[in-house]
Amino acid sequence: MADRIQPRVLKGFRDILPAAEIERADLQEKITKVYRSFGFVPIDTPVLEYSEILLRKSNGETEKQVFRFEDNGKRDVAMRFDLTVPFARFTAEHESELYFPFKRYHIAKVWRGEKPQAGRYREFMQCDIDTVGSDSAAADFEILSVMKAALAEIGVTDVTIHVNHRGIFNRFLEKLGQSEKSEDILRSVDKLAKIGRDAVRAELVETTGAESCADEILEYIASADDFDATLDKLERMAGGEADDTKRMREIREMMKAAGIDATYVLDPSITRGLDYYTGVVYETFLNGCPEIGSVCSGGRYDNLAGLYTKTKLPGVGASIGLDRLIAGLEKLGKTTKKGSYLDAEIFCMDKSLVVHYQKVAAVLRAKGIAVEVFPEQKKIAQQYAVTDAKCVKWGIIIGTDEAAGNVVTLKKLETREQFPSLTVEQAAEKILSEKN
Amino acid sequence: MADRIQPRVLKGFRDILPAAEIERADLQEKITKVYRSFGFVPIDTPVLEYSEILLRKSNGETEKQVFRFEDNGKRDVAMRFDLTVPFARFTAEHESELYFPFKRYHIAKVWRGEKPQAGRYREFMQCDIDTVGSDSAAADFEILSVMKAALAEIGVTDVTIHVNHRGIFNRFLEKLGQSEKSEDILRSVDKLAKIGRDAVRAELVETTGAESCADEILEYIASADDFDATLDKLERMAGGEADDTKRMREIREMMKAAGIDATYVLDPSITRGLDYYTGVVYETFLNGCPEIGSVCSGGRYDNLAGLYTKTKLPGVGASIGLDRLIAGLEKLGKTTKKGSYLDAEIFCMDKSLVVHYQKVAAVLRAKGIAVEVFPEQKKIAQQYAVTDAKCVKWGIIIGTDEAAGNVVTLKKLETREQFPSLTVEQAAEKILSEKN
Hints:
The structure is a homodimer.
Chain A: H1 18-37, E1 41-42, E2 48-50, H2 51-55, H3 60-65, E3 68-70, E4 76-79, H4 84-93, E5 102-111, E6 123-132, H5 137-153, E7 159-165, H6 166-175, H7 182-189, H8 192-195, H9 197-208, H10 211-220, H11 227-238, H12 243-257, E8 264-266, E9 280-286, E10 296-301, E11 315-321, H13 322-331, E12 344-346, H14 354-366, E13 371-373, H15 380-389, E14 394-397, H16 400-405, E15 408-412, E16 417-422, H17 424-433
């Protein structure tokens, strides 16, 4: 074929090769396991939806980034850019078929045509959980607790979850007479880690028109010694106790009761910018590389599906950005290398024995051993190249003598240690005994 | 908000609610487990690709069905309509990073704008396996063996896998002097189950111009008494032994050696129509409802990635159509109902105890029990509605007396049987002992 096409993927997209995909699958499976163990249930929604459904609430930035087109039926459609908007539509559409509180997880791809840059892709995976239909401290705490448990399950324990409450901040701004400027103020505060205190102060002075206001805001967003001391300070600056501070204290009590309070800090500088959150908000940083940003964020919102139903559904949720998390794990040297799920390889020593090899494989599989038969009598070096790439622990060698005696030679491939003249049953036993 | 949007999905698309999604996840996990145990490794490719890459080899029908558009960067892009074309592009692009034979699985969604009809969706899930880089009977047999094992793992054992070899049929047509009409003949033969023997004969007479040819073809595609007798007949009609019949005999020997030969029939009417297969081909029918069509099909091809690389990569693969398989399981009453992954629910009997409930939940989770805390003190009937929907086995009741005594009442929700005054440890033991 002279007319060959250069194989390539679109800008901002990528293939995932086996070792990396095994790692991704492993993380997803562990996260899923934890989500399930807290009572979250899976749903699925279409990748394509009416643009009207996905984009009505969005700002101009999202519209520019979305993959949107006219389908063959002249419908204006778009690929989902997050899992929250489809979930809101889903909840409204199936309200009568669901029960509340409804706790769902959804681990799936989303698409945004962002400017490609290091570690940023146009197709990426989100791992979302949300509880809707309950405005309670228990639901808030549960999400915070799942976040920690999911990260622990994948071996990430050196982590800090930063928590805040938008309601307390709003009260404080009201007391300061700056409520109507809250959007600009939030936008500036959100940049603290990025542009530094002085630059944020300069912006705040311009926004509020008063140095004293800027300084009060900066004082507000600084953490005190510990969670409780910070909460006391925020309460004081916001004008005293109210539902929001009571809620934070209740959540804190639950953290202590569950013995996980050390993972959380009260960080008044976390606001989640212009997002639709109304209550608790949180971001999660790997202590070893906070610079990659939050790997798990979320918060409480007043009304999930107001665009589609008159039922008011308060909720709380979080999302693990799997791609960013993996970037972090790579930086920390915490990724594992695994080339396959195999326990053993039956090498093809003699092509006249290929039927016998399948028989042995069937016996081993019936005992729960993951095994493949090398399908052709290639040079042994070529066969080893495959078992190396697939990180197979055990080689099974059967030449004509072994086949005649109905035995095998077992070989630990890493050390080249050999165990000759084992029956298939003995070989199976050895493989299983060293499987962890 | 007066300006509400009607929540709805696009024609031919659908949401999956929790009980159905749990079923789907369960099937996928079991199929994945089997694929892995035979040495297949996962990859991932983008949902969106250049239209040129996806569509070059396709026929007009595919082009009409594909979701294709111009992206914001003026690129002509399309959503994948199968997992084979992206795999061919992947293999060519990463040839130097892979090892061969390369065995991959890919379980993912594909999109086709087909006319929506009962059980047909525009977004559906395929579970593909392929082995490329080996033209061997062992590789052919392995795919056939995985198909059976994957279906067995999900409880589908009453199944027949129909196998055939395109090469033998091609030799037969050559002998008949009808090679150049093979496309039309294949198309007719493929319709046997749908339109019946007489209608196929009429088409064949028209195509070949001779009643005797039509009758010979009909004789060829009829099965004899058993696999071996049929193979003898095909060999005879195709002009004697050749590589193709030797291959079929070798595969048959492997089926017998592995003790799984009863599942397979040699069915000369299976051709996979105009697909690119060149060797063995197969289709799989649930014996209880063959009318839903093949739930797992595939075959051997000469050259996977010839459009993108000069390396000739022979391969063999199969694909389970998850949506059709589920439709079949539903018809057979073989689907299971499961509302969540929970073992137990801690009811909220008294809102003053919410912190205590979290403490108990943390202790139970540390013992490996999947448990959720009902987050608010709602009417007990409302709490039961949730545990019913989520099919939770155990209720944990803690009122003020129990909390004071640091005990719980365990309740088997289905039978209402109660086990009062258990310590949390005793309750955990009972829950775990009845978990299968």
